[in-house]
Write a structure and sequence with these properties.
- This protein is α/β, with parallel strands linked by helices and 344 residues long.
- The chain folds into two domains: 1-81 and 112-226, Rossmann fold; 227-344, Magnesium chelatase subunit I, C-Terminal domain (Helicase, Ruva Protein, domain 3, Orthogonal Bundle), CATH 1.10.8.
- The protein contains 16 helices and 13 strands.
- The chain has helices spanning 3-26, 33-45, 59-69, 85-89, 126-129, 132-138, 173-176, 190-200, 214-225, 231-242, 253-258, 265-281, 289-294, 296-300, 308-313, 317-327; strands at residues 48-52, 70-71, 74-78, 90-96, 102-108, 115-119, 140-143, 146-149, 155-160, 179-184, 212-213, 259-261, 305-306.
- The strands form five sheets. The protein has a five-stranded parallel beta sheet with strand order 3-6-9-1-10.
- A hairpin with a 5-residue loop joins strand 4 and strand 5 (102-108).
- Helix 2 crosses helix 12 and helix 10 (231-242) packs across helix 12.
- The longest helix is centred in the N-terminal third of the chain and has 24 residues, at 3-26.
């Protein structure tokens, strides 16, 4: 078997296994294909997801269903204003040994899992939210000077309500940037809502089957990183990231008018990895411009900060990002020549 045939076979196998997980989620979750694809894309990359939507749209149910379809440990933390960092990370407690001596013993918190559902994450105080910074970036927990490794793979799936803001605390930019995607969950269509009513009001309980474990997820995470990212496509996603920087060399007029801060380098990394997943799902082992465009909004909408003018005029981040996507050309005149060696 040639190298090309082997790559094609692996891409096909990944798509089959991806769809197997998606099928199990579809047994419970009706519609929301873009949201399900976004969550699965982030999972296969190894990133965290922020789900934003009004109550009752199935955000929490989606995460619970994903956990049931995967043979991974799952914990849910309900974020509230009185939640403390130790309630998430754990704490040292005085324990008595069989010999009667008293010693400190670390009691692990609910973050010691593989899928952590941070429900209504913006209801906790900044002090508590900051407890997740190390965990989300490095997959570790440090308590009383001792560093603990979390079991891999590890994902934080967080939800928040964009409407009810009383008693909430906006997520700091440092934490938002650690989410791979921000997915906005919308309302169901007429047919989807009818199906939801049918499934939930007739006494029939549907449970997804476990179809994948952690070792297989790690295998696909490695495969995704081996997908070819050609230099000219990489240059496009880099320029897309730089186009979000106000007053920067690649800033568009709408960037300078409505944005206060642009994306960090994590935005470019996310575009590259997420586009590789889309390429595999299309049966290709190389990334196209269209793959990059399809993941641009969820990868960037939480990494840019609007200025006062945008807020006063009711302009949202998606409006700005869509215009950047429309106006920025795929190829740049000052782009480096396409090399024979392809960047991965």
């Amino acid at each position: 078997m040639s190298l090309g045939e082997s790559m094609q076979q692996q891409a096909e196998e990944f798509r089959t296994r991806y769809n197997a997980v998606k099928t199990q989620i579809g047994r419970v979750i009706v519609g929301h294909d873009d949201i399900v694809n976004g969550v699965l894309t982030a999972m296969f990359i190894g990133g965290h997801v922020l789900l934003e939507g009004v109550p009752g749209l199935g955000k929490t149910l989606l995460v619970r269903t994903l956990a049931e379809a995967l043979d991974l440990k799952f914990n849910r933390v309900q974020f509230t204003p009185d939640l403390m960092p130790s309630d998430i990370l754990g704490t040292n407690m005085v324990m008595e040994t069989p010999e009667g001596r008293r010693v400190f013993e670390f009691q692990k918190g609910p973050i010691f899992t593989q899928i952590c559902l941070a429900d209504e994450i913006n209801r906790a105080t900044p002090k508590t939210q900051s407890a997740l910074l190390e965990t989300m970036q490095e997959g570790t927990v440090t308590v009383a000077g001792t560093r603990y490794e979390l079991e891999k793979p590890f994902f934080v799936m967080a939800t928040q309500n964009p409407i009810e803001q009383e008693g909430t605390y906006p997520l700091p930019e440092a934490q938002l940037d650690r989410f791979l995607f921000k997915l906005v969950v919308g309302y169901s269509t007429r047919d989807e809502l009818a199906t939801v009513v049918d499934r939930t009001t007739k006494g029939v309980v549907i449970r997804p089957e476990k179809v994948m474990d952690g070792s297989e997820i790690r295998k696909w995470q490695q495969l995704i990183r081996e997908v070819i990212l050609a230099q000219h496509v990489q240059d496009y996603l880099v320029r897309l990231t730089l186009a979000t920087h106000p007053q920067g060399p690649y800033a568009l007029p709408i960037t300078n008018q409505y944005l206060r801060w642009g994306s960090s380098p994590r935005g470019a990394q996310t575009l590259a990895l997420a586009a590789k997943v889309r390429a595999l799902l299309e049966g290709r082992y190389n990334v196209s411009f269209e793959d990059v465009r399809r993941v641009f909004l969820p990868a960037m909408r939480h990494r840019v900060v609007l200025n006062f003018e945008a807020q006063a005029e009711g302009i949202d981040t998606d409006h700005v990002l869509l215009e950047i996507l429309e106006k920025l050309p795929e190829k740049s005149e000052d782009a480096p020549p396409v090399r024979a060696a392809l960047a991965r």
